[in-house]
């Protein structure tokens, strides 16, 4: 995560190693690790987005009203706005240990692998546009003919 974040903050456009399920210098790929990597990329993207500040989001009037030591969580403004800036992971578990144990003590890799299997079992891709399908088939046919010429 830190390698990806530092690269992203430096302005790198493409980060290859350590993302998208690639392990062992690209010799191994893992669907569960792919989903973990995706969550890391989402986290990095959220950091790069920054925090939006304007008169409403800064809520100076509310800060003055609630005062030091006050409770902002019960304020209507907080309830209406906190999710705009808050990123919630789907695989990383933030539950207390007792709840985590009650739910089966599944670590992030187990949850990621279960999610990957669910996606593979239930995902139904949308069919390609017929024009795109034809162009793709023509491209493959052309390349296969070129390959035959090179090999023989």
Order of helices and strands: HEEHHHHHHH
Gross morphology is elongated
Helix content: 55-70%
Based on CA atoms alone, the radius of gyration comes out at 23 Å
Strand order of the largest sheet: 1-2
Query: What's the total number of strands?
Result: 2
Strand content: under 5%
Query: Unreliable runs, pLDDT <50, ≥5 residues?
Result: none
Please tally the helical runs, counting DSSP H or I stretches of 4 or more residues. Answer: 8
Structural class: mainly alpha
Mean pLDDT: 87
What is the distance, rounded to the nearest whole angstrom, between the alpha carbons of the first and last residues?
A: 47 Å
Largest sheet: 2 strands, antiparallel
Brief descriptors of the model:
152 residues, mainly alpha, two-stranded antiparallel ribbon, 8 helices, 2 strands, elongated
Write up this protein.
This protein has 152 residues and is mainly α. It has a domain of 50 residues. 60% of the residues lie in helices and 3% in strands. The chain is built from 8 helices and 2 strands. α2 packs across α7. The longest helix has 22 residues.
């Amino acid at each position: 995560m830190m390698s990806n974040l530092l690269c992203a903050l430096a302005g790198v456009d493409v980060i290859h190693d350590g993302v998208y399920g690639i392990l062992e210098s690209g010799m191994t790929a893992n669907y569960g690790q792919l989903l973990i990597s995706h969550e890391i990329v989402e986290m990095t993207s959220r950091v790069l987005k920054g925090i939006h500040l304007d008169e409403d989001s800064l809520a100076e009037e509310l800060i003055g009203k609630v005062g030091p030591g006050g409770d902002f969580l019960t304020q209507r403004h907080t309830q209406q706005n906190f999710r705009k800036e808050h990123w919630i992971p789907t695989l990383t578990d933030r539950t207390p240990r007792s709840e985590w144990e009650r739910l089966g003590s599944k670590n992030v890799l187990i949850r990621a692998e279960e999610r990957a299997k669910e996606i593979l079992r239930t995902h139904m891709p949308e069919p390609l546009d017929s024009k795109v399908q034809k162009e793709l088939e023509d491209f493959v046919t052309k390349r296969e003919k070129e390959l035959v010429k090179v090999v023989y």
